[in-house]
Amino acid sequence: MDEIFRFTIQGDNEGYVTFECPFCGSEFKLQAGEYQDSERPFDDLFCPYCGLTKNKNSFLSSDIIEKAQALAQNYIIEKLNKAFGKMQRSINQNNSVIKMRYKPLKKINVKELKDKDTSECIFECDCCQRHFKVLYYAGVSKIFCSYCGVDI
Amino acid sequence: MITYQNLRLLSLDFRRLSSNLLSADSANADILLARFKNFIDQDEFISALLEKKMKGIEYNFKDCFQIETSDWHTISPPVNEEYHIKAQYDYMSYICESNCSVEGEAFGYFHSSNKIIDIIQEFLNNAFKSLIDYINDSISKEMMLIEEEQTQKPSMVQNIGTVNGTVMQGSGTMSSVNTTIVNDLNAIVNLINRLFDEVDRFNLPYEEKENVKDDLEIIFEQVQSATPKKIRLQKAINGIKKFISEFSMKYAISQALSIDWNALIIKAEAFISTLG
Predict the structure, then answer these.
(1) How far is B18 from chain A (nearest CA, A)?
(2) Residue contact B22–A53, C-beta within 8 A
(3) Has residue A38 been placed in a domain?
(4) Domain membership flag for residue A29
(5) Cα torsion at B134, B136, B142, B147 (round to 10°)?
(6) Which domain holds residue A24?
(7) pLDDT at B245
């Protein structure tokens, strides 16, 4: 049985959320509205720094993955506690020779995700008109659009 | 010589191909490595780049990729970057041309994951990522050099002052005299610095002050950028125009300052017209 967990990530003051490149490990930000825009779907993302591309899920930041794992872990803990609690009650009924003791597992802390305001610059892609936030020094490096991969 | 447009296309193609290689699995790793090797061999820019880097270097790739041991294979990159590039290229040729597979090679190295896809990707990343980075960076550097050349040319002559033209309709000949004015970017920067200080002294709502400061900052950044963005500049100028029309009368901004605002708009628009 598949379980779906939903959680929200609060963007920075301009609505940008942090992502992490699976190749070079650099962090960049994308506008939440554009990322979730169902009218302009996309499968892959490009790293604005190294320009390499992979499935968009590979760009989820370690904080997001940590939170998803924590939610899944808490779900399992809850199920186990419920099942063993029920078993304990059933075994420990009156007149029962066998007794069972069960110490419920503790849930782990799930932190709220909130992106802080940082000093990156916002760029608009001339090709797809979508936005991303990166650290950029003119003339020192090249950057690429996270959605269509063209150089900016 | 390769054009800027061709470099952009090459960059995109190369990045796609190398990303695919680094994300390969057991089913497609061999074909993706062969495809990558063919691409870097057949593309004129990349093959010339690698040839130049590896010219005259005698280095056995097995000194870097120690694959002839009874123990786990290891990677011991040489200090010299040229040697490392050559070792990676030769190792790639060795895998493509011999009977060994990427998966077989990957399993020869120490791995901690128990997933085949992770072992393959870790191997490809450790073995060939620095070659990919070198080619990727070289393409970007070439693009930056061309960009710089292109932006330097128009910045010398930025504004056409007067155009006197005569057209002789019957004979079909045309003559014109153009007077060009060398526009000093420093003038725009100085104006922005002056206006920036003045904005704080205006009796304006905080939000309006911040908006106009943002517009000034954008113009400041763009005129000094190697690759100024026409759309961003135009948006900032429109913001300043709106600010002047709405607030100059309302908050009694002095005539002298109003002249500075207008001068900034004229100079910034002249700058935009040179961007093509």
Answers:
(1) 7
(2) no
(3) yes
(4) yes
(5) -140
(6) 1-74+111-152
(7) 72
In terms of Cα–Cα distance, which of B112, B135, B145 is closest to B41? B135
Decide if B231 and A51 are in contact by the 8 Å CB cutoff. no
What residues of A are in the B interface, CB distance below 8 Å? 23, 46, 50-54, 124, 126, 138-139, 141-142, 144, 149-152
pTM of the model: 0.64
DSSP A118-136: -SPEEEE-TTT--EEEE--
The count of other CB atoms within 10 Å of the CB of residue A14 is 13
Render pLDDT for B4-30 as a digit per residue (tens, 0 to 9): 889 999 999 999 999 999 999 999 999
User: Mean pLDDT, to the nearest integer, of B116-123?
Assistant: 94
The whole-angstrom distance between residue B150's C-alpha and the CA centroid of its chain comes to 13
Is any Cβ of chain A less than 8 angstroms from the Cβ of B144? yes
What is the ipTM for the molecules in this complex? Answer: 0.76
**Cβ B232–A151 below 8 Å, yes or no?**
no
- How many A/B residue pairs have CB atoms within 8 Å? 51
CB-nearest partner of A151 from B11, B16, B231:
B11
**Is residue A88 situated within a structural domain?**
no
Number of structural domains in chain A: 1
Query: Considering the domain boundaries, does residue A24 fall inside one?
Result: yes
Confidence tier at B169 by pLDDT (50, 70, 90): very low
CB-CB neighbors (< 8 A) of B148 in chain A: 139
Per DSSP, A57 falls in state G
Question: B99: how many CB neighbours lie within 10 A of its CB?
Answer: 6
Which residues of chain B neighbour A23 with C-beta distances below 8 Å? 19, 22, 125, 129
Asked if the Cβ–Cβ distance from B231 to A138 is below 8 Å, we say no
State the average pLDDT over residues B99-119: 91
pLDDT tens digits along B232-259 = 888 888 888 877 777 665 555 555 556 6
